[in-house]
Amino acid sequence: MARCEHVAWLRLSEEKENTIYDEARLGRVLADLISPEIQQPSLLLFVGGKTKDVALRVLFSDNNIPRARGEGLTNLRVDNSTVRSNHPIFFADTNLHYLPEAEIPPLACHVSKAHPLRRADDSESSLFDLIHARLFGLFSDVICVFAEDFHSLDDVVFCLKRWAAAGWEASNKSSPLRPRVIIVLERSSASVTYNTLEMLELEDLRFNLRQQDLIQFFSAIVLFRLPDDRMSCLARHRALKELVLRHADEMRQLRRALRQLFSAAHLSYFFQHAITKLDWDQAPNLMELGCERPLHNLWEHAERFLQITGGGADWEKAMMLLASGLLMNAYPPRMHGIALSPGCGHS
């Protein structure tokens, strides 16, 4: 079978309202890694339109991203320069002006899975907001928003506030692992009058970004101004790339300290689990997703084990061994970080 070149991760259908189509892109990205059970990726999300597309081609030049806009609501790639690293960079991009597609036909190269959602009558959140707040809000380390692709700075704030409102129940408000936001601003004029008006507008933006609902949902909101266009495109975006990667690195260190730095295999499993639980009424929580595994004949196995081991002086050791076995069995296949023999009950 020919290699699938599609990069769309999630798509929406005009025909089937309130349905998310998962294009199995995350699984194909994992296939490009050398050891997805060991490698621990960061997930970056870029939101915007034309300005975002230009930035992606510069920030990830090794990927040869075409000038034509991506295929889906959200597209996913892995930074080719990090494929063999211990900490690869996954970067997704959302097309701010994406419209649901008239038809999503089946493709021969990959399987598209539809996830219909039950709409809450009293919800003010759109499907766009729900996806970004309750899915990407759970898994993204850094969200990079390109203000130039919005109608105004007020629209940027309004978008973030909608996400905060939609994802409130999904977030762990006390956790430092809430996503960080970088708002990218353009410097498009050297006029003194323009700069004065721009400074006033930025002060208003900073005030709005300090509102409680945003502070509680996002762990940090940073403003970054691109240099003016008299510089080369590469030079204009160099500092932005350093800033994004620095925040991604800090989030990775936090995850490691809190023992929540997951492998790529874990990330894929959690995402597939979360998208099936996504709903207007109930928000998936990373701490509650769990990885349920069927426990076939659990009690019979435990009873037989205790009969064989007996009691007496070895009773405490038997209990420790049984507890250890139950914990190991709770992990889905390929997520232990070590190779397990068939005797462990995993295929």
Question: Could you please describe the fold and organization of this structure?
Answer:
- The protein is α/β, with parallel strands linked by helices.
- The chain is built from eleven helices and nine strands.
- The chain has a nine-stranded mixed beta sheet with strand order 6-2-1-4-5-3-7-8-9.
- The longest helix has 25 residues, at 233-257.
- The chain is globular, with a radius of gyration of 23 Å.
- Mean pLDDT is 81; it is low at 340-347.
- Give the assembly state of these chains: single chain
Helical stretch tally: 11
What is the general shape?
globular
Tell me about the biggest sheet?
9 strands, mixed
Strand content: 5-15%
Helix content: 40-55%
Unreliable spans are 340-347
What is the β-strand count? Answer: 9
Give the arrangement of secondary structure elements.
Layout: E1 8-12, E2 19-22, H1 25-32, E3 42-48, H2 50-59, E4 74-78, E5 89-95, E6 113-116, H3 127-139, E7 142-146, H4 153-166, E8 180-185, H5 192-209, H6 212-217, E9 220-225, H7 233-257, H8 264-277, H9 286-289, H10 298-309, H11 315-330
Helix pairs in contact: 3-4
Give descriptors for this structure.
347 residues; alpha/beta; nine-stranded mixed β-sheet
Q: What's a concise summary of this model?
A:
A nine-stranded mixed β-sheet has the order 6-2-1-4-5-3-7-8-9. Helices cover 40% and strands 14% of the residues.
